[in-house]
């Protein structure tokens, strides 16, 4: 599996593109979820590059593994903390008291998620060497 990190990184980029496409389509809940997915796959690309095949969806848990290799900037951790909430909240009515997730998302939230996913993706791209 010498270059599998490249596959994970390529998929992270595609997920971010899909998020942007959903932003344009005003599907803000799905945009937010795809941002979480982009960040998760980017972090997993970093970990695979360093020989660690970590599973799971918790970005902060994945960051613990990254911190074994290098220090993380606070803005990267903050981006992960915000995106972490999107894994369930953007998709499951059980994650909210009443209603369905799409009712709680707007363009501002989706744009913030895209910025957070970009922060994490840029961090990973800058540190794959």
Succession of helices and strands: HHHHHH
**Strand residue content:** under 5%
The rounded Rg comes to 14 Å
Low-confidence stretches: none
Describe the structure.
By secondary structure, the chain is an all-alpha fold. The chain has one domain (4-126): Four Helix Bundle (Hemerythrin (Met), subunit A) (Up-down Bundle), CATH 1.20.120. The chain has six helices and no strands. Helix 1 packs antiparallel against helix 6 (107-126), helix 2 packs parallel to helix 6 and helix 4 (74-84) crosses helix 6. The model has no long low-confidence stretch (mean pLDDT 93).
Summarize this entry quickly:
The protein has 129 residues and is mainly alpha-helical. It has helices at 4-24, 28-49, 59-67, 74-84, 86-89, 107-126.
Keywords:
6 helices; Four Helix Bundle (Hemerythrin (Met), subunit A); 129 residues; mainly alpha
Secondary-structure map:
Layout: H1 4-24, H2 28-49, H3 59-67, H4 74-84, H5 86-89, H6 107-126
